[in-house]
Amino acid sequence: MVAQPLEHLRHSLAHLLGAAVLDLYPGSKLAIGPAIEDGFYYDIDFSSAELRGQTRIGTQTYADQKMVISDSDLPKIEKKMREILKSWEVFEKIDVTPDEARKIYNGNQYKTELINELEKNKQPITLYYSGPETSIPAKKSLLQATSYKPQAGFLDLCRGGHVEDVKEIDPEGFKLTHIAGAYWRGSEKNPMLTRIYGLAFYAKEELDAHLRMLEEAKKRDHRKLGKELGLFTIAEEVGPGLPLFYPKGAILRRLVENFITEIQEKRGYMPIWIPHVTKGELYKISGHLEKYDALYPPMRLPDEADYYIKPMNCPHFMMLYKSLPHSYRELPIRYVCTTTNYRYEKSGELSGLTRVRSLTQDDCHVFATSEQIEKEVGLMLDMIEETYKVFGFNDFHVRVSIRDIKTPEKYIGDSDVWEKSEKILEGLIKNRNWKYDIGEGEAAFYGPKLDFIFKDVIGRPWQLSTVQLDMNLPQRFGLEYVDTDGTKKQPVVIHRAILGSTERFLGILIEHYAGAFPVWLAPVQVAVLSVSDKQSEAARAVEQRLKNASIRAELNNENETLGKKIRGAELQKIPYLAVIGEKEVVSDMVAVRQRGKGDLGQMSVESFIAEVTQEEKAKSL
């Protein structure tokens, strides 16, 4: 979450961007300009804009000559922002009536829509003035906010949150980055606006550091590496957000999922299987049919109920538990399933593997008594700790999301169970000496939760694992167990995902390692290279010996120079190269090259197999 003072600085710069646009392109219609993580943006309608200083063509009006701006215009806008900033001294709030606000924004349908909503909801309507301190306009003589007039300052419809002193804004601490299209209020039914993005920090040094990080992130982009390394693709004919995995990518995801399966099944978690479609009645019981907005439309079958492709697994788990009678002696029951869900995410929000429409979850639901919560969550934390250690995710913190006790009506479940559960969750994290913070009011309405946020090697935060306590679905589905005294009680359900989503986890993993996976994760562990055609058969035999030892080997017997073969294998970031020349054939040896270390010299095939096998078992980074 963006720190509050920095958020104010970024929001102030959104106003500055708006002023610069109105100065350069009078008649533009400003829509919304919020602060976001790392910066700010402004959505703008340029359809009625003029270009200041532009010469009309013949008798055409500016409206006839449609205004289109691109990334190449950003330096000009940025320069204008710095020029305007020199004359700004204050941000001042001005309370106005709905009618006054509508008069000021007459002709701007976006601001007018917001004003009407504020009036309907009986919320205050405020403008913020920024400009010279000596020329603050009086309420009753406000000019229309359709162009920037330096002598009159800049007005924007805004609820506030700005720097207290304009001098807090470093003129070199911000940068406009790119332009994108954005539908008004995120709806495809509304007009497409131009969104101008900017980065902003307290000082130039912080901005420069962030830009270096972004440059490194480009090199690590999993979409770029996924193509270069032959891991996955997204085909238009299949659909956006529906990735297809090549053999190497399929091997990588299998390795990751198998690792999770191993660590949880040895701790008593039991695999189940659930179908990918269900009758709508299931989601009616769970409440998703009414509340969840990412459901795909129903499949309407003649003479049958509507069926839905599943966007989540929880209701299926509930029904599996409910289908059998249960005693306290059986609890906890730990069900796990790695299965794919399908969610209708907006196309503009999709991104490679990190935001998809088909997401595979390592989903777990534990049915337990309230007395078992501490032990069961502790077991989950053990698995998360083991996973993070193996994958090299050492820099992480935990957000303990709890209730807002001032609004108890927002939550369901027994207050005593909530209080006990929240203390248990915080205590478990505290006892492990893990970094954590408390997210007051960030709990789900059905229970408190833990969210794990780790930083990758270039400092970007990612939310991964989650543990959630649920007192809602057991109630909605009428789940029960027979307690020691013979009475029926309601279990607590603990939701848990370590990877979260396999696809998203793989996207993060590719970028974390920049595609250079450790031996145990590498889809191809060894590239076998023949020096010439004379060693082809010997190289093929070595490849087979490696495969027989369960080493993932790939042979390159192409009619190419050895240098080209080595270069190709290095570009594929393969951990080991085993070169077969005349000497190696005679002595049953291989000349070994290791990624990052270069030539290791000759070794026998059996010794090489032992070394690779040992490194794989150690799961070293």
TrEMBL record:
SUPFAM superfamilies: Class II aaRS ABD-related, Class II aaRS and biotin synthetases, ThrRS/AlaRS common domain. It holds the Pfam family tRNA-synt_2b. The keyword tRNA-binding applies. GO terms for cellular component: cytoplasm. InterPro entries: aa-tRNA-synt_IIb, aa-tRNA-synth_II, aa-tRNA-synth_II/BPL/LPL, Anticodon-bd, Anticodon-bd_dom_sf, Thr-tRNA-ligase_IIa, Thr/Ala-tRNA-synth_IIc_edit, ThrRS_anticodon. Binds 1 zinc ion per subunit. Its EC number is 6.1.1.3. Its cofactor is Zn(2+). Zn(2+) binds at residues 314, 365, 495. It is found in: Cytoplasm. One of its GO terms (molecular function) is tRNA binding. It catalyses: tRNA(Thr) + L-threonine + ATP = L-threonyl-tRNA(Thr) + AMP + diphosphate + H(+). Residues 221-518 form the Aminoacyl-transfer RNA synthetases class-II family profile domain. It is an enzyme of class 6 (ligase). Homodimer. Belongs to the class-II aminoacyl-tRNA synthetase family. This is Threonine--tRNA ligase. The gene is thrS.
